[in-house]
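QA checklist item 7 of 12: single-chain prediction sanity check.
[x] sequence parsed
[x] length recorded as 187
[x] structure emitted
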Amino acid sequence: MGERFKIVLLGGSGVGKSAITLMFLQGTFLSEYDPTLEETFRKTMTIENKSCLLDILDTAGQESYTTMESRYIQNGDGFLIVYSVTSEATFQKVSKIYDLVLRVKDMDSFPTVILGNKSDLAKERKVTLNQGIELSTQHSVPFFETSALQNKNITESFSFLVKILRKKRETDLITQKKKKKKKCLIM
């Protein structure tokens, strides 16, 4: 089967997490918006000639569910933090969400990609491409502008996150091996 990764989509309400998930899984766009509570999906894909199984958690964006975010984060291997380019408020939440990821994971950085969704809605845009780039640079996290409607950068963002996750696993294995070697030294 290959590797398995738990990917969690986080972000404010109405940013298009479910639309991104459905476009990635089924290649379909859902025009009717029905607030998500929590849904898990699976997809097998091949990235760089290696098969992997993705467990994808599409989370709720409502404020009342933020206490559940810690549980989502604890179980996640990597994160797609989504905001809508048509909403300054959802853009402002990205840093808070990423800080929560780092706090829960107790790390200085963690495999995450920021997505500025709804790039097709140019006339309603409130957040510029440069603001998204600046935010990603500030957090040293990759960034994609996406459009679930146009299937723009959807697969690319998942694939990029998987590449980061693989690199992290390799680094973690090397670190573990070095620690074991140090423990086995006899003086």
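[x] summary fact logged: The first strand starts at residue 3 and ends at 11.
[ ] second reviewer sign-off
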